[in-house]
């Protein structure tokens, strides 16, 4: 018998449920452990039971069987997992900006980080709760884990939105576009235009060769990437598919030891002069989490944008007493 891959999910709301469904549909993992707050003013035990039942009913249509465990609010059971996805949040609080969940998600995280750490978890955290960079920093500080084993989805999602916007602007498939949003997963993120390329050919070069195709308005495209989530939220009062898939893509990179490169939230250790908190830069993701952080030759303007974005993350960390 081969090794059994175990994946845990904290929070089975809109996004957590889609994470679970995507994992099952893609055949990632052999055992899935799901938890929710199941007592007090926010008892989600019925919702959790319903999601587990629904997933079980779908297994006959999936690539392979997955053992499904309803763990209630027994967070310590997730300590045996290889990867834990944190999807705990309240999306209605983020209707205006991602900082809206700041106090809710960081207080909620305190209820499960320590029980999981105390039970001996030594896998990889993947957190998508907002503000993503702040919650990732909190998980690292409260768990005492090696920071490379804590990953925030960060601007992995926003980079996908940027590629989609660029695809619409140029007609090229997004899989052939290398383009990254960096910094905070929030309003201060920015596009690293100096590093954008299409099939390896730099955008700046293509603009000179094909101005009719590549003469799009960079500011408009960047805004589409930055605010794409709010277009989605305006129509259905949540975002769920893309962010769940961003998290699952990171799970696959970890359990398959892919050495996959994507921007995601990781600990700053002197990067561009910043230290002591999480935000997004291009990272190499493998079995040990973040195995390497890549650095671009950012333009002076991009460097200023990165530093401004970091300042916003640090201000939020000060607001909750983590910096």
From TrEMBL:
The active site is at residue 185. One of its GO terms (biological process) is lactate metabolic process. Keywords: NAD, Oxidoreductase. GO terms for molecular function: L-lactate dehydrogenase (NAD+) activity. Residues 5-152 form the Lactate/malate dehydrogenase N-terminal domain. Pfam families: Ldh_1_C (PF02866), Ldh_1_N (PF00056). The keyword Ligase does not apply. Residues 155-318 form the Lactate/malate dehydrogenase C-terminal domain. NAD(+) binds at residues 11-16. The keyword Isomerase does not apply. Gene3D superfamilies: Lactate dehydrogenase/glycoside hydrolase, family 4, C-terminal (3.90.110.10), NAD(P)-binding Rossmann-like Domain (3.40.50.720). Belongs to the LDH/MDH superfamily. LDH family. This is Lactate dehydrogenase. It comes from Bifidobacterium pseudolongum subsp. globosum.
């Amino acid at each position: 018998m081969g090794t059994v891959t175990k994946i845990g999910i904290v929070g089975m709301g809109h996004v957590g449920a889609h994470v679970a469904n995507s994992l099952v549909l893609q055949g990632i993992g052999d055992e899935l452990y799901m938890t929710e707050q199941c007592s007090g003013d926010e008892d989600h035990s019925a919702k959790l039971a319903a999601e587990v039942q629904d997933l079980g009913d779908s297994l006959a249509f999936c690539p392979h069987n997955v053992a499904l465990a309803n763990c209630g609010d027994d967070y310590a059971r997730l300590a045996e997992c290889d990867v834990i996805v944190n999807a705990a949040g309240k999306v209605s609080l983020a209707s205006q900006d991602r900082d809206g969940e700041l106090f809710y998600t960081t207080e909620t995280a305190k209820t499960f980080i320590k029980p999981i750490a105390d039970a001996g978890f030594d896998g990889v955290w993947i957190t998508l709760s907002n503000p993503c960079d702040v919650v990732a920093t909190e998980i690292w500080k409260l768990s005492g884990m090696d920071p490379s084993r804590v990953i925030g989805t960060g601007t992995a999602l926003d980079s996908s939105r940027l590629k989609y916007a660029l695809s619409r602007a140029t007609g090229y498939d997004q899989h052939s576009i290398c383009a990254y949003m960096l910094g905070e997963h929030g309003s201060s993120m920015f596009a690293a235009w100096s590093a954008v390329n299409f099939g390896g050919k730099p955008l700046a070069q293509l603009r000179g060769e094909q101005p009719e195709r590549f003469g799009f308005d960079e500011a408009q495209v960047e805004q589409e990437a930055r605010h794409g989530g709010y277009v989605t939220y305006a129509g259905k009062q949540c975002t769920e598919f893309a962010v769940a898939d961003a998290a699952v893509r990171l799970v696959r990179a970890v359990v398959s030891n892919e050495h996959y490169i994507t921007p995601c939230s990781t600990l700053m250790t002197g990067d561009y002069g910043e230290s002591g908190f999480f935000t997004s830069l291009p990272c190499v993701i493998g079995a040990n989490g973040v195995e390497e952080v890549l650095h671009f030759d950012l333009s002076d303007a991009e460097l200023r944008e990165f530093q401004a974005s970091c300042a916003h993350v640090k201000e939020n960390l000060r607001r909750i007493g983590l910096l």
